[in-house]
Design goal:
The structure holds two protein chains of two kinds.
Chain A lengths: L2 H5 L2 H31 L4 H33 L2 H8 L4 H16 L10 H15 L1 H22 L4 H24 L1 H23 L10 H20 L1
Chain B lengths: L3 H33 L6 H30 L3 H7 L2 H15 L7 H27 L1 H8 L2 H7 L2 H13 L6 E4 L3 H17 L6 H21 L4 E4 H7 L1
Antiparallel strand pairs in B: 1-2
Helix pairs in contact in B: 1-3, 2-10, 3-5, 4-5, 4-8, 9-10
Classes of the chains: A mainly alpha, B mainly alpha.
């Protein structure tokens, strides 16, 4: 059996499918529980459907980038394993680095899994899984405590805890934004295109009640427009 | 109707059970595959292949939980189980919170975030499955220069869309001047990026010091009265 017959074997597809199906139903169960609770809290079905619709549209565009990650991983790891890795605790940025680092640590620099033994492949699969599992283990042991602390922080709306909650997102932006604002001019232009689309749609929604439905799709449009503009900017600037 | 505590406990229990089963299933894949092919690795090989990666990613994994949990509430469990956090789940959560005008840290915000992330996770799983099914016919499109170029700029496009939402608070409480807390870490990293190196590959690691620095700045500014909390009804009275 050659390497790609092994990594695309029926056994691996079956094993991977079982995990993905379980996680799909777990996500469904979480959403269902939240839906029921939202109704208990007094939300209307129409409001919740709005959230659903907006979420679906806002998810489709970034999901394309994840699917492209699948196309990058498939020539190295076959189809089944990347399918699992991107669907469960997935991170496009992590998987490729993890596969390459583990392979090179095991077999030496510049080597590829294609020429490795099945045991080496299984080793890499174990390492990739272990490396990404630390977050889940932390949550397993400390999730309850973290949740209680967050609830406490948010409960006193006059305390610093509430300010700290609001500042997590600002810290995220302060970390990511300087890197891509200085990485390439195209990145900067994409960022501002997305800002302009968001503001324009925001103004439209406020000024014209007839198009208030657009509010649910602002994120999706800004993402799509921003990413599409990258092609224009790249062509214009070379 | 259940109390808030009952609901939170239920979600915590569900999350922990979900994590346990997911971890068992995840490790079962290489284990069964290895047993079938008589190719179970030795501990030495696992250690040799994994040490570099584990040393880097274990602290990142732990810090990500601490960083993202306050933003995601009970949805943290399903977010970490399905992954793609910064490039998908955080923006989707933020979008849903804005859409429903919820206040951070409240049960309403928690419930709406969980609903959005659960749905988003299902959509992504379906999209990736379609990608696997249509791998051959889609290949010319997905590997075309146009699509490849566009996919490189997901994060700038996402941040462009999110930054406007940051300028205002949703819900009943407004934190005035909160952006000031981000100035020092932003300028610091801007200088590092301009003078030393581009940090995009290290953003995950950089979150570990930058989030506490941001919160530290916020604390100083809060104590000095530069960052203030205003309840929306108080603002309306003033207006």
């Amino acid at each position: 059996m050659d390497y790609f017959e092994i990594v695309n074997s029926r056994l691996l597809y079956i094993l991977v499918s079982v995990v993905i199906i379980f996680v799909f139903f777990l996500a469904f169960y979480f959403a269902k529980k939240a839906w029921t609770r939202a109704l208990e809290l007094g939300y209307k079905k129409t409001d919740l459907l709005k959230v659903l619709k907006s979420t679906v549209y806002a998810t489709i565009v970034p999901s394309f980038a994840i699917v492209i990650g699948l196309f990058a991983l498939a020539p190295i790891l076959g189809n089944a394993w990347p399918w699992l890795r991107l669907s469960v605790i997935g991170s496009v940025a992590y998987e490729l680095v993890a596969a390459e680092t583990a392979t090179e640590s095991l077999l030496g620099a510049g080597t590829s899994l294609e020429n490795a033994s099945t045991q080496d492949l299984v080793t890499v699969m174990f390492v990739m899984t272990a490396g990404i599992s630390s977050g889940l283990l932390t949550l397993l042991f400390f999730g309850n405590w973290i949740q209680r602390t967050v609830t406490k922080m948010g409960s006193n709306r006059k305390s610093f805890g509430f300010v700290a909650l609001e500042c997590f997102m600002i810290g995220l932006v302060a970390t990511f934004l300087p890197a891509f604002l200085t990485e390439s001019i195209v990145g900067v232009l994409v960022f501002f295109t997305s800002v302009v689309i968001t503001i324009s749609f925001g103004i439209l929604v406020i000024k014209f009640k007839k198009v208030s439905w657009l509010r649910d799709f602002i994120l999706a449009f800004a993402l799509l427009g921003g990413m599409a503009s990258s092609v224009l900017w790249t062509n214009l600037l070379g | 109707m259940r109390t808030k505590e009952q609901y939170t406990n239920e979600m915590n229990k569900l999350g922990r059970i979900g994590i346990m089963i997911t971890l068992v299933l995840l490790f079962a894949v290489p284990t069964i595959f290895g047993i079938y092919h008589n190719a179970i690795p030795t501990f030495g090989d696992f250690f040799k292949a994994g040490i570099g990666l584990l040393v880097l990613y274990i602290p990142i994994g732990i810090s990500e939980v601490l960083i993202y949990s306050p933003l995601l509430g009970s949805a943290t469990y399903i977010t970490f189980i399905t992954g793609n956090i910064m490039n998908l789940k955080v923006p989707v959560a933020n979008n849903a919170q804005e859409l429903m005008n919820t206040t951070k840290g409240t049960e309403e915000s928690d419930v709406i975030t969980t609903l959005a992330i659960g749905v988003s996770a299902m959509v992504t799983i379906v999209m990736i499955a379609l990608g696997v099914l249509l791998l051959v016919p889609l290949e010319p499109i997905m590997t075309s220069e146009t699509v490849k170029t566009a996919s490189l700029y997901v994060l700038p496009a996402l941040f462009g869309a999110l930054i406007i939402g940051l300028l205002r608070s949703t819900g009943e409480v407004q934190v005035k001047g909160k952006l000031l807390a981000g100035i020092f870490p932003f300028v610091l990293l801007l200088i590092v990026n301009l003078v030393v190196m581009n940090t995009s590959a290290y953003s995950g690691v950089l979150l570990i010091p930058i989030i506490p620095i941001t919160i530290g700045c916020a604390y100083i500014l809060f104590k000095k009265g530069k960052i203030t909390i205003v309840l929306k009804d108080e603002m309306e009275v003033k207006e």
